[in-house]
Amino acid sequence: MGMRKDLQETTKKKTFSEMQKERREQAQRSILISCPKKIPEKKLLKHLCQHGDITNHFFFESFGLHAVIEFSKKESIASLQDASFIPRGETEFPIPFKSRFFHLNLKNPSNQTSDVQCSNQSSPLNANIIKALCNAESVENQINTLMKILQLTEENIRLRYLTCSLIEDIAAAYFPSCTIKPFGSSVNTFGKLGCDLDMFLDLDDIGKNSTTKTEGSFLMEYQVKNVPSERWATQKILGVIGECLDNFGPGCVSVQKILNARCPLVRFSHQASGFQCDLTANNRIAMKSSELLYIYGSLDSRVRALAFSVRCWARQQSLTSSIPGSWLTNFSLTIMVIFFLQKRSPPVIPSLDSLKNLADVKDKCIIDNNDCTFVSNLDRIKPSENTETVDTLLCQFFEYFGNFPFNKNSINIRKGKEQNKPDSSPIYIQNPFEISLNISRNVNESQLERFVHLARESAWILQENKGQSSKTSTEPWGLAALLLPSVPNKSKAKKAGRGQTSEAVKKLLESIKAESTKDPRATRKKTTISTQS
Amino acid sequence: MGMRKDLQETTKKKTFSEMQKERREQAQRSILISCPKKIPEKKLLKHLCQHGDITNHFFFESFGLHAVIEFSKKESIASLQDASFIPRGETEFPIPFKSRFFHLNLKNPSNQTSDVQCSNQSSPLNANIIKALCNAESVENQINTLMKILQLTEENIRLRYLTCSLIEDIAAAYFPSCTIKPFGSSVNTFGKLGCDLDMFLDLDDIGKNSTTKTEGSFLMEYQVKNVPSERWATQKILGVIGECLDNFGPGCVSVQKILNARCPLVRFSHQASGFQCDLTANNRIAMKSSELLYIYGSLDSRVRALAFSVRCWARQQSLTSSIPGSWLTNFSLTIMVIFFLQKRSPPVIPSLDSLKNLADVKDKCIIDNNDCTFVSNLDRIKPSENTETVDTLLCQFFEYFGNFPFNKNSINIRKGKEQNKPDSSPIYIQNPFEISLNISRNVNESQLERFVHLARESAWILQENKGQSSKTSTEPWGLAALLLPSVPNKSKAKKAGRGQTSEAVKKLLESIKAESTKDPRATRKKTTISTQS
Predict the structure, then answer these.
(1) Which residues are in the Poly(A) RNA polymerase mitochondrial-like central palm domain (chains A, B) (predicted)?
(2) Domain presence at residue A395
(3) Which residues pair with A61 in a beta bridge?
């Protein structure tokens, strides 16, 4: 799809903060509209153009039809707001909060014909994934197809930034120079459709102002309330913002204030966008990790391709789970992929230390005594000489970790080399910034064994499948084969709620057999559509 | 004091809403500063002038020295804010909320000399009141002196509007077109120094916008949260504002959310201004009552003079109390004064019905099916032909209610005539707007008896004192005599915490005897100072 291509070509050159800045600014010019089922797109756009030029728009389904409209100027929104009403129901009373989230009414809904195309915002069904893979040309093609199906779409990214921006309006009411930025999978290029939206409330710019204006014998301060610790301040601020979301926040439901967590947060679901949101504050290291992954993900297309395959595989094999526990996490797996790619010769991507060596003065960054410095300018990292194809790399990945000496070595992407394990945890992956921490501390021995076992099994399946393609196969092959439930783990699988998956897969296998007689292109087309938008 | 004179002459002509508008606008150009003890006034003003012209300023004491600065332009405040800091303590962490309430630091406090005059914001001591009255020339002069001592000063009025305006900033963060206005004694011209600050959160302007812009087939509404009742909405909004005051509101302490009251409210104390504040919402009838009293109070100077005397007398005789109970209220007493003045011939002030007959179209006002219509333009009410002096009127007031047939008649300022009592409550004063309600429902038989008894006693004392003046007296006389604890009620008095009053009075009587030998002017001057500012 054109839009995404542009995005990727341009963001390649952009630094993480440039990209964030551009997206934020775009979101601030955008609005969210909940629409009736039948909506005449052209008429609506014509109507909205009264308030200014529209540079972009799309529709999507989430508890009803919604539209995102991007104006070319912020002023247009003020003009639209000026022409909008607070609804006054007979039996319902509004909390008259004026946001950039509107509700559109048609004066005569009956005689309207809907002509809108909805962009998909939710993660695809396993069945559709496997179907798409079976129709691919090669394992390499399968891996790239999988990434295309799973990765965030341009629209979904816009929607994530818009949602942050809407929440920022609520926070900024009290803290004018605060910002709310997405972090984690929404921005690190490894996010998949349907992943949570992690929000970062940044209060640091507040009070940074006018540090120069101190001449004269007077020093003017704001009269403020004080609390004994920064944590306490964060808890108070998040607490009140939580109250506001709960009471005013249009579309914000099931707001939970989890203020006593190590990192205090407000969790809520933003119905209109369909995102599960976690709002935290002053969580700077997490933002830096997002930037690091963004850099690795943007450096070489193989990094993301491989990560998506490995993570999807792990999920299908219930090596990861949505329930916290002794499972591997997507973050751990991504770091393992990065480490593996650093270890290739020639390396596909450089070590974190070499990214640090490329850093200039303005990249310097120390957070809580942790050195988080690394180059931000992607153009200063020279492309890899490694030419291996992603299918080879995937196979090698499984082989590499199928035989990794987890018992004595730790995984360290800062050095790009394995190190001696500092403790006896089954698997030790050094946190790239808080280097005394093991990001896979939670993983127990049996989960590690399952991982190793399945990695070997998968390496073997891929070897065996080499060269084979959809033309000759009547059942899942290549990457698709890796995504089928592996027999020994059925029971475990059921626990992690994969009953319906295997169900879906049974149906699927039949449908494939049936289709294999028809022209595969038909299904391929269906697939391509479902991977688009 | 010049300032107050101007105020009174000009506000006489202003309608209630004009006055409110002017005061609000003045408050929005003003800031509050907490200052160190020693502060060089001239230097400070010179420093602040960097940000724009200062049209008015004063200092006062409340948990330390504070200043109110009124700029001629709002922009000056933005400029000052831009040059101000969020303080960063070592052990204290700020909630970085930027308001118009500042804290001033001196770079070298040592070598500063304070040259500020503080304006008094608190109610005078009984002893000082009685002293001032004893030094007056006549009973008429006593009555006017008492009013001057007790009434709100120009500075105190400014401070009340500024406090509302600071709270409005917090509410307006979420409800941009909401306003917070003072009502009740702060604005009805009957308030005395130290009285509570009643605030009215007005959300009605919200959603009033753009009722015209409905052409085209689309109707754009804000997406809002809805609740099943207006009361519920009010509770939610006040609840969140309460949270904000508690967590961010500079100087707002002991915030209580009393949301299940008949009229939900948030009670808090604003330390810097020293006001006890009650924030309610959509309490329109109360605002209308304030306007009515404002009109009666502004029509004829004798109304306020008499009301202040009667209310001060009632308080001293513990006919009223700060504790809710079966006592008369200041509001009831004020209505009784108004009624009494309507009953004179010729009347001093017109009935509410005749004020209604003078109303024009834009004065029309119906609230919850109660007709609250009356003329807003004071110039359309012609002055009274009654020429009685306030001392005569006070005496007559006591005689009138000393002999009023409370058993069969009700007090009705709408008609300006007594009516038959609709029920058997000891005293029945019709609520001027919710005409089916008795505003003195709470008063029991024994309290009424005390009132009647003391009214007669007081009428008698005033008769006896006729013509007497400070020249010849060595102990409290005239109005002062009425304010001394009356023997029969000592016991009751003690309960209502007047122990220390009588104490003060004993000391006072001695001091007066002592002074009576000296030139009375000396004390008179002292008095005048304490009544000023």
Answers:
(1) 140-297
(2) yes
(3) A65
- Interface contact flag, B88 A207, Cβ < 8 Å: yes
Task: Share the mean pLDDT of chain B.
Answer: 86
A223/B101 touch (CB, cutoff 8 Å), yes or no: yes
Cα distances from B463 to residues A72, A312, B141, B205, in angstroms, run 82, 100, 16, 54
* pLDDT tens per residue across span B272-298: 999 999 999 978 899 999 999 999 999
| Strands A30-35 and A101-106, sheet pairing | parallel
Residue B469: HSE in the Cβ half-sphere, 13 Å Cα cutoff: 10
From A468, A483, A498, give the residue that closes a domain. Answer: A483
Structural domain for A177, as ranges: 16-119+151-206+229-284
In this structure, are A342 and A267 located in the same domain? no
**Which residue type, as a one-letter code, is found at position A215?**
E
Tokens of A274: 């369909």
Is A96 in Cβ contact with B221 (below 8 Å)?
no
Do A434 and A308 share a structural domain? yes
Q: Is this complex scored with an ipTM above 0.85? A: no
- Find the CB nearest A222 among B98, B227, B230: B98
**Domain-embedded: residue B529:** no
Tokens 């006729």, located at residue: B466
Same domain, A444 and A414: yes
Structurally, chain A folds into a number of domains equal to 2
Which chain A residues in 23-82 lie under 8 Å from chain B, judged by CB atoms? Answer: 32-34, 43-44, 47, 80-82
Check residue A345 and give its pLDDT: 93
Question: Shortest CA distance to B457 belongs to which of B377, B398, B522, B407?
Answer: B398
Indicate whether B233 and B316 sit together in one domain. Answer: no
Nearest CA in chain B to A85: B221
Concatenated DSSP letters of A342-385 = HHSSS-SS--HHHHHHT--GGG--EETTEE------GGGSPPP-
How far apart CA B350 and CA B413 sit, in angstroms, is 9
- The reply to whether B199 and B309 lie within a common domain is no
Query: In chain B, what residues touch A255 (CB-CB under 8 Å)?
Result: none
CATH for A340: 1.10.1410.10
Q: Based on the fold, state whether residues B194 and B77 are members of the same structural domain.
A: yes
- Chain B positions touching A47 (Cβ under 8 A) are 216-218
Whether residues A159 and A188 fall in one domain? yes
Cα separation of B112 and A103, whole Å? 60
Q: Do A93 and B232 touch (CB under 8 A)?
A: yes
Whether residue B199 sits in one domain with residue B87? yes
Asked if residue B43 belongs to a domain, the reply is yes
pLDDT of residue A394 exceeding 60, the answer is: yes
A2 is a domain residue: no
pTM of the complete model: 0.81
